[in-house]
Design a protein that fits this description.
The protein is an alpha/beta fold. It is built from twelve helices and ten strands. It is extended, with a radius of gyration of 29 Å.
Length: 393
């Protein structure tokens, strides 16, 4: 039996997929299809998008359609159209899934090979200089993703010096919502804001802008692999990619508190990842509330919370200290919440229904999906923080 390649099948006007024809071509359809293809009278690109096994099958479908239309009852013709549409739609879905699985398998195999080579090279270097072998990491943002990658960085470095390089101005798609960074994941301003926070962490020996340095681990790998990034836990994506783990119930960011006592609730709410079912106006009854984020986000929230105060932070180390010193923190799935999660302060997460990819781990972490629970959780935290002080020092 002759086996044809995909390109050969396409040149013959047939499909590279092993599908049974929905309409088995007769001799007349095959002959006519051969003549049309030989003469170049068909737009092959348009035909390929029709999801037929061959051009001959397509012609057979057209002949059957016209025969039904002119020589059958209206009910029979309508039934023919409905069933044919369902069969074609089902075939298209199966083909799309097969293509996606094929592409995913290729990406996985490429990642497996690269990961194997990386770990072999690292093990050789460690064997020659085990005490001071530096590992290098690259990340292009967003800022919250960088924070969530740090447990994996710690696990991979395993006590050795770790250099983290931040790649700037990589394109991002924020369709449907305004974003402070426009159309990139990380810019120079955000990187400079991150430097003071990241450079105070003892497990990071160096944090700089990426400018072509040799990299051991590209922390953007998860973006090129078949990982469902609209759900789960961002921190665990890196565990999946690199085969490591870390205890996410303990803090991985450490900063000193502000000198002022923790009297205020700290609130952050970006324009993305909002839960439209939550109403924040009940917070007007909760005393002093301070907002961290952009001016635009603050002005929008002040429409609901007139007594809201704005805290302007010069960098993200100061932002982390403000959050660390809060009575408790409320935020949606945005950068400030990643800092609160990393420090394990008392915190309430506004869960985004359509993209729940942040999960509080450990003590004092609460999730609000519904209004009743939101108000109940905040009420409980208000009572607890009146009686005792949380030990998030």
């Amino acid at each position: 039996m002759k086996h044809t390649t995909i390109s050969e099948q396409r040149s013959e006007g047939s499909s590279p997929f092993n599908d049974e024809p929905l309409f088995k071509p007769g001799p007349a359809s095959r002959l006519l299809a051969g003549v049309i293809l030989m003469c170049g009278l068909v737009n092959r690109k348009k035909f390929k998008n029709k999801h037929w096994t061959s051009y001959a099958e397509y012609l057979q479908f057209k002949l059957t359609k016209y025969r039904k239309k002119f020589f059958s009852s209206r009910e029979e013709y309508s039934y023919f159209k409905r069933t044919t549409l369902n069969l074609i739609t089902d075939r298209a879905a199966r083909r799309h899934l097969a293509l996606e699985q094929g592409r995913d398998l290729g990406k996985i195999q490429e990642h497996e090979l690269r990961l194997r080579q990386t770990f072999v090279a690292i093990q050789k270097s460690i064997a020659s200089s085990p005490l001071n072998q530096k590992l290098t990491f690259k990340h292009s943002g967003n800022a919250g993703d960088i924070i969530y990658s740090l447990p994996a960085v710690k696990a991979l470095a395993d006590g050795r010096p770790a250099s983290l390089y931040l790649q700037l101005d990589q394109p991002a798609d924020y369709t449907g919502r305004e974003h402070p960074l426009g159309n990139v994941k990380l810019n120079k301003f955000m990187a400079q804001g991150l430097f003071p926070l990241l450079r105070t962490q003892p497990y990071l020996s160096e944090v700089e802008i990426y400018s072509g340095q040799t990299i051991d681990f590209d922390l953007d790998d998860f973006r090129n692999l078949p990982i469902a990034t609209d759900r789960g836990h961002i921190a665990r994506w890196y565990f999946w990619v690199y085969g490591v783990t870390s205890d996410l119930t303990v803090p991985w960011l450490d900063v000193p508190k502000l000198d002022t006592p923790a009297k205020a609730i700290v609130l952050a709410r970006s324009q993305r990842y909002r839960n439209g079912g939550l109403d924040f106006r009940f917070l007007n009854e909760m005393g002093l509330i301070r907002f961290v984020g952009t001016r635009g986000e603050f002005e929008e929230m002040r429409q609901m919370l007139p007594q809201l105060e704005y805290v302007e932070c010069t960098d993200f180390l100061q932002l982390a200290r403000v959050i660390k010193s809060a009575r408790f923190f409320i935020g949606n799935q945005s950068f400030p919440y990643s800092i609160a999660e990393a420090m394990k302060v008392p915190r309430v997460l506004e869960v985004c229904r359509i993209c729940p990819n942040v999960i509080p781990d450990g003590a004092n972490g609460f999730e609000a999906l519904f209004q009743f629970n939101f108000e109940r959780i905040v009420g409980q935290l208000m009572k607890v923080t009146e009686r005792t002080a949380y030990s998030h020092t």
